[in-house]
Amino acid sequence: MGLMELMEKVEARSGNAHHVILSYNGTVFYVSTVRVHFCKGDMKHEAIFCAKETKDGPSKDLAMEIPQDLYEVLLKYVRLNNPDLILVLQVEGSNCRWGFTSETWLRQYSRKDNSRYYVV
């Protein structure tokens, strides 16, 4: 293993994924870690999201297949290592969508005049 390959492995740790929210088949989860079994040459990879429905709830391992483009999004998000960036994933069956938002922006605009606004 070369130095560059070793550096890539270190940079792509899921510990750098500070905020990941996953909507999976109609339920919202807060993800603590993601493990991906990279299937070389395949366009789908096995992923396990370690997630909770609530902050104090038990962790669950959610196993699913993810497409190559979602795998690349996860890698880029982890490499950014930006604690303000929230990755929002929506997985419904075989359809995957994702987006990014700023935690600072979300906190700033979620409470105004003691009212709460929700981003859907």
Counting DSSP H or I runs of 4 or more residues, the number of helices is 3
Globally, the shape reads: globular
Helices and strands, in order, run as HEEEEHEEHEE
What is the helical fraction, as a range of percent? 25-40%
Annotation, overall tally of beta strands: 8
Radius of gyration: 16 Å
Please explain how this structure is put together:
The protein has three helices and eight strands. By secondary structure, the protein is of the alpha+beta class. It has one domain (9-116). The model is unreliable at 6-12 (pLDDT under 50).
Topology:
Layout lengths: L2 H9 L7 E6 L2 E11 L6 E9 L7 E8 H13 L4 E8 L2 E8 H8 E2 L2 E2 L4
Describe the structure concisely.
The protein is an alpha+beta fold. It contains three helices and eight strands.
Which key phrases capture this entry?
3 helices; six-stranded mixed β-sheet; 120 residues; alpha+beta; 8 strands
